[in-house]
Amino acid sequence: MKINQHIIQGFFISLILIITTNKITLSHFSKITPENLAFYFVFILSPFFILLGSIYPDSDIRKPWKIKTRNIFSLFFSLLKIILVYPLRWLVYYPSYWIIKSLMPDKFRYQIKNEHHNTTHTLIGIGTASLIIFTIANFLFFLLKKHTYSKDMFILGLIISISISIGFIIGCLIHFIQDAYSGNGNSKYGISPFQPFNETKFYGNYSSFFNMNSKDKIMSVLIFLLLLLIPWGSEYIYKMSSSVLIGTFIFIIFVISLLIIIFSAYGIEFDMRLHKKNYEKPLKKLFVITIVASILINLIMYIIFL
Where would I find the H helices in 29-109? Predict the structure, then answer.
């Protein structure tokens, strides 16, 4: 999938969550207490970094990003990529690549390469990157508050850094799923999230480089329309919840379930498959079960808590 499409879909998801979570915090967290402080910062900060995480895995593309002025959209995307991708590449990707390469046992090290769809498209890669993001956020918070730094400030810095890392990881996982149903029906272009320990690949028949009858645009529009359920659902959940904390818990599960349903549906549409050396398995049944399970989990929670 092209980086522009990752940006568009990541932007839609971030925008809806930012609008919704800010509305929730204004309505239900007007008085910050130790009890809801963690939820407050998770709500405020995480959505902003989903977009960053959804772009990060493509920061390993070493070609120079250029300013394109064909139209207003190409100008916007090229500026956004330059503003975001270069800092991600130098501050996060290269350090994480070096750390993984240095610490990896010799029998796995040869698989760690400075190339596209390598470390940034693995779980160990985004795990290492999220730790770097966490460290940078914590250090910057310390610099801003060093004159009044205390135990409470230390805890607050941890909460903020964890919130940022959560959003970043969610964005990276969304990028993984989008790439996992791409591949134009060829496992060669799939992703291997368990590398270097396991070469299992995931791929589908979607391709942004061939004529898909505008399916990429339809996908983005459908994602945006389905995400509109989030602000509507949040109103109902908080209205019916017995406490803010219970409402927050149900809301988080609702958002995660909705994202799982959306991307499972695309996994079905684009015939996503699991591929090993001498083994291949369609994942359609698994996605159907996942969608049904997500719906049932939400229904059970609403019956018990609402």
Answer: 37-55, 72-88, 94-103, 106-109
Q: What is the pLDDT of residues 90-135, one digit of tens each?
A: 999 999 999 999 999 988 988 999 988 899 999 999 999 999 999 9
Q: Answer yes or no: are the C-beta atoms of 273 and 281 closer than 8 Å.
A: yes
The full set of domain ranges for the chain reads 3-305
Instruction: Return d(Cα 79, Cα 65) in angstroms, integer.
Output: 9
Residue 216 pLDDT level (bands cut at 50, 70, 90):
low
State phi, psi for 192 to the nearest 5 degrees: -120, 80
The size of the chain, in residues, is 306
Contact 146, 29 (CB under 8 A): no
What pLDDT does 31 receive? Answer: 62
pLDDT at 74 over 80: no
3-state helix vs strand vs coil in the chain, percent to 5: 70, 5, 25
- Collapsing DSSP to helix, strand or coil, 214 comes out as coil
70-94 b/e with 16+ CB inside 10 Å = b? eeeeeeebbebbeebbeebbeebbe
Look at residue 201 and give its three-state secondary structure.
Answer: strand
Dihedral, CA of residue 258, residue 264, residue 268 and residue 269, to nearest 10: 60
CB 120 within 8 A of CB 3: no
Instruction: For the chain, list the strands marked E by DSSP.
Output: 201-203, 273-276, 279-282
Average pLDDT estimate for 277-287:
90
pTM: 0.88
